[in-house]
Amino acid sequence: MHNTFEINFSLKGFTSILIGAYFFIAGYLIKTILENFLIDNNAMGMFSPEIIEVVVIAIVFFHFLFSTLALFFGGRRTAKRFDYKLWNTETKIAFRNYIFKVIVIFSVLIILMNLGFINYLTPVFLTLYGILLFLFKNKQRKNLLILSSLSILLAVVCFLIPSYWYSSISILGIAHITYGVVVS
Predict the structure, then answer these.
(1) Number of domains composing the chain
(2) What's the gap between Cα 10 and its chain centre?
(3) What is the distance between the terminal CA atoms of the chain, rounded to a whole angstrom?
(4) Rounded Cα gap, residues 132 and 19, in angstroms
């Protein structure tokens, strides 16, 4: 029976590849915006730091939006293949939990940013993302534990070396793409 959240909304295959690509794109855009903001003769240098913060928050928001849409469309494709309803009571509850966890992640990151702890944004994000993956209900928990552990390990590295944030996001994107290719 495939009428469960674990099967309908799984993080394997093309969905994981898309999420990994979204990590690459979001990380690259944020890195480019921050580098161009620091260059004197660049047009981005004329923006205020508040505008740059809003743009970065918008990039992170769209990353989560597109990742959620990838999960939804992957789940819809799976449910259609097995001719089951996508939205049953179990998937509705799990989706509400997922949205709640994403809102908590955003809230914590915005609070840290407002308090001025900019160097801790990526480690906290990676830690919370690792916890989100750990709590994601899936029968193949061992595979998700690898992604979750990698995310927390990268968070520790980012905590020790704050300038390693872009490399950590890229490694997490590579891990998602690899996970999507291997676990199909």
Answers:
(1) 1
(2) 15
(3) 19
(4) 14
Using one digit for the tens of pLDDT, what is the confidence trace for 105-119? Answer: 989 989 998 898 988
Render pLDDT for 35-55 as a digit per residue (tens, 0 to 9): 888 887 878 778 888 888 889
- The string of DSSP codes covering 98-136 is HHHHHHHHHHHHHHHHHHT-GGGHHHHHHHHHHHHHHHS
State the pTM of this model: 0.85
Q: Which amino acid is at 117?
A: F
> CA nearest 166: which of 111, 115, 125, 136?
125
Q: How many CB atoms are closer than 10 A to CB 45? A: 11
Identify the domain containing residue 66 by its residue range: 5-182
How many residues are given for the chain? 184
H or E, element range at 79: helix 49-82
pLDDT digits (tens, 9 = 90+) for 114-159: 898 988 999 999 999 998 888 775 555 677 788 889 999 999 999 9
**Number of helical (H) and strand (E) elements in the chain, helices listed first:** 7, 0
Tokens of 52: 């740059």
- Could you tell me the two tokens for 76? 């819809």
Element at 173 (helix H, strand E): helix 165-182
Let me know: does 111 contact 46? Beta carbons within 8 Å: no
Q: Which two tokens mark 182?
A: 């291997």
